[in-house]
Write the structure tokens for this entry.
Amino acid sequence: MKHVMGRLYTSQLWRSMFRHGLPDSNRTRAETIFYNFFLHIHPTKVRKRSLRYTYTWGLGGLSFGLFIVLTVTGGLLMLYYRPSVPQAYWDMKDLQFVVSSGQFLRNMHRWAAHAMVAMVFLHMLRVFYTGSYRPPKEFNWAVGVLLLVLTILLSYTGYLLPWDQLAFWGISVGTNMARAIPFGLGEKMSFLLLGGNIVGENALVRFYVLHCFILPVAGCVLMGIHFWRVRKDGGV
Amino acid sequence: MKKLRLTFAISSLTFLVMLAISPLKDFFREWKWYQYEYNELVSDLPQRVKPAEIGIKQLWIQKLDRIDRCVTCHLGLNEPALREAKQPFRTHPKIDHDYEDFGCTACHEGQGSATTYRESVGKVVFWDKPVFPTEFMEASCAKCHKEREVPHAPILTLGRKLIEEANCIACHQMNGFEKQWTPSLDGIGSKVNRTWLVNWLKHPKAYFGKTKMPNFLLTDEEAGILTDYLMTFKSFPNNAALDGLPPALASEEERAKLLELGSTRFREARCISCHPINGRGGYVASDLGKVASKATAEWLYGYIKNPKRLQPGVEMPRYRFNDMELAAVVAYIQSEYVDYETAELPELPPQIPNPAYFEQGQALFKKYNCSGCHELGGMKKAEEMGPELKFIGGKKLYEIDFGSSNIEQTLPSYLVTKIKNPRVFSPVMKMPSYEFTNEEAQAITVAMLGNTDERIPEELKVYPKPQSTYSPQGEFGTLVEDLACFGCHTMFGRGRLVATDLTLEASQAQKGWISGYFKIPYSLRPILTERMPNLFASDAEIKVMVDYMEKVFIADSLERNIRAGRDEISKGRILYYEKHGCQACHQINLKGGYVGPALDNVGSRLKPGWIFHWLKNPQAFKPESIEPNNNLTDEEAEALTAFLMSLK
């Protein structure tokens, strides 16, 4: 066994992935952390009190967990959903009536989305009450606020996709609110969001792209920064 | 820490169980049980019926852009062996449309994409069109069938007829209906008395049960003001005026002398062919039972003398009475057709002079859109008075105001309630009450529900035949207009069918018989109420009409010479009495049945070519005829014709 493992650790395939040797010295131990994408986020040290569950309530982690649930269910939903006016509503109905566990997927995506908004918000409250936004962590607070905005935007753009009356009027009201932006920017903003003057095919495609690509990618980048900072500041 | 782990363990287990429930639920879906049940049912049948393959089934109707999954559970639709099985497995009743071509929801509505009972019936939130109850099913026929009489859809056909007759389009925009003729109100002040008009406005059906005029539910004050307003319109259309009474009608004694002549002429003119008397008689025109308490003698005299002068467009013939006969008929009407109930009541006191009555009356006239139906003083019809109803069948539930009523909140129940009781949802509504029965309200609802903006491919739609443009010219044309022939007869697709279609009249009847018939009309079937009136036309006029008919109302293809030797006649007699037993329905010399017309003297009435072709295929000429088609050979038909032509 030992012989086999030894062969493996010295094979070219293994060495191409892990350049350092086994963590048997301080140098290789450090390299194990630094050269690994997943491990390099670890802080150099963690304070014992910040490990206490009631200190963070795990709200950030829960939010991230929900984000993963949403990504997985969302990806599966994308297999059945076409963002076009004649089909969107019926694709949703097909998910409900025909696709195996389709209704379960939809419900999971929907409830996870609601829960994520709640979790992110609670997370922000917790950060506020524990004073974790104070220097030197102001930047991460700002990133967190952006993440909250992204979460709400994701929730809002997903609202249009079922293409029912609720969706149509929800988005009509929302974009009309955007129209109230002063300095003549309102009309432009609303036009940019809808790809036109009314909620139609263009708006559906725009919201779909925002919901499934632009906002999640932006979220991932910001989350990367957010988690990096949290860990380097000694959080979990 | 231990407690935390325990919590974690328990919640993990809970989530795992929840995750397991979902695929289970998916595995045991409602439709699967139906399919298992169907297969069990089918295996118990004595006949061999193919069991269903387990899985969702659907009909994709591309032309109607519909996907219907109803057939997932309705598995026996095409299976004659399941005619009496329980639902959802029962065979579909036989109809002209194959469900595989049209799908289910195109006619039944409901949510076609659904695969559960509750969702597919569609009485759920976010679904506007639940499955039609049986009594409103025919509304779906109307989506494609725009013709007047829809085959196998009696309720829809009745509804369309009622909508047209009630002249709904006077206030509501709707496609496919023609505006009805309604009398002009110009001159009403010289025609009727005030008491009658007040009572009429308050409740038209109390005077004439079958009137098309609805009840506008006016208050006493409104009725009084509107009457005062209407009574000021004394002059008739085109400035026609009444001539005043002839001396023969001036006094009671003079009138009494005329009564007998008047009664005879009234009967000969067959007024009751069109006019009912206290509810009995024809249905084309208004009731005469109490007309003497409604209209003035001057008006009756002037109107019967020349109906179209006082009421342009009315379909009443101008009888060729001389002045004496005319006076006699008016005297008879005045003595006979009095409303004894109101005659004994004191005359309604005139309205307390209200200086603003004209403006207020005019405002009422406009408020209720009276000019939608009636002409008055050149006033224009109000535009878009009531809501447009072109697409009422597609109305969404959230667009309907049910007011404080507690009826079932569906479109059909809204419409039925509204039609029966027009102001129930809000007292400010102005629609009058037509006093429809439940069946009528249902029929109208069915016709209205069919008015949708659903996109139906043009090739599936069935339109009514275009209106006939036949309009006879010359002397005959003038006579047809003056004698209002189209009021009862159809010619080349134009006119009513109270009486016969005259399009082939000259191919059917002999010239001499037609001339004689104008002089002394009699009924071929005495049980009918509607009979040809004696118009008292002159010989010259009759000649014009008969000559025209001989030229125009004839088809050369129906000419045929029949050999009528003794042999043929006796052969025909045998066929008549023995082989085909015609005497079962027809009489000759008072012997035989009375289902069909008597055949005495038929040889001097009909033309041989007509008899021959009729016998070969009666339904070719009259689709609703109940005479059997006996598949006669030419030889047989000729012999029968020879026999019938010998009955002179």
